[in-house]
Amino acid sequence: MRRCVFLDRDDTLIFNRTLPAPADPPSGWKPGDLYDPERVELMPGALKACRGLHDAGFALVIVTNQGCVARGSATIEQVEAVNARVRELLVGEDGGALIERVYYVPYHPNGFVPEYTREHPWRKPQPGMLLAAAEDLDLDLSRSWLIGDMPRDCEAGVNAGLPAAQCLLCGPEGDHATVLDAANVVLGSV
User: Does the domain at residues 4-188 carry the CATH identifier 1.10.760.10?
Assistant: First the structure.
């Protein structure tokens, strides 16, 4: 079984809530709803963090709530296009992909699109995305880490069975300023 670092996407790897509002936002849009791959911009240190973790032998998996689909401000296709752009930007020096898989959940209990308006076991802080990744990719959760910018990210990790000390919070809410700072903690443990 392999070690993994689960990574939140928005405001961990890419800018999100601080992006200026689009010129003509769709109905249901709120700050943090990113639907345009051309607006994807990596956070400082994100590429270096992913390269270091990948080179140390960790599988890298993005796990992200995308309630914008339930709110009607993005489509599944737009979320997947943004995810694809993130993966295009996160490449090794050899041009190879660093991110092994992206798991996302389009559901939100307060949405407006009926087919996506509900709670779901993949929606963080629930552990569903991490558990699915562990099964799909043969991951050892006890030796895996999670880096995110919101407490619900770390709660999902703990709920999936990751040791609490291996769930790191970065950004204004956390103990680590950036994803790179958190990645350096992970790298210091191996």
Answer: no
Task: Show the 3-state SS of the chain.
Answer: CECEEEECCECCCECCCCCCCCCCCCCCCCCCCCCCHHHCCECCCHHHHHHHHHHCCCEEEEEEECCHHHHCCCCHHHHHHHHHHHHHHCECCCCCECCCEEEEECCCCCCCCHHHCCCCCCCCCCCHHHHHHHHHHCECHHHCEEEECCHHHHHHHHHHCCCHHHEEEECCCCCECCHHHHHHHHHHCC
This prediction's pTM:
0.97
pLDDT tens readout for residues 68-109: 999 999 999 999 999 999 999 999 999 999 999 999 999 999
> Is pLDDT above 90 for 23?
no
Residues forming the active site: 8, 10
Domain boundaries defined on the chain: 4-188
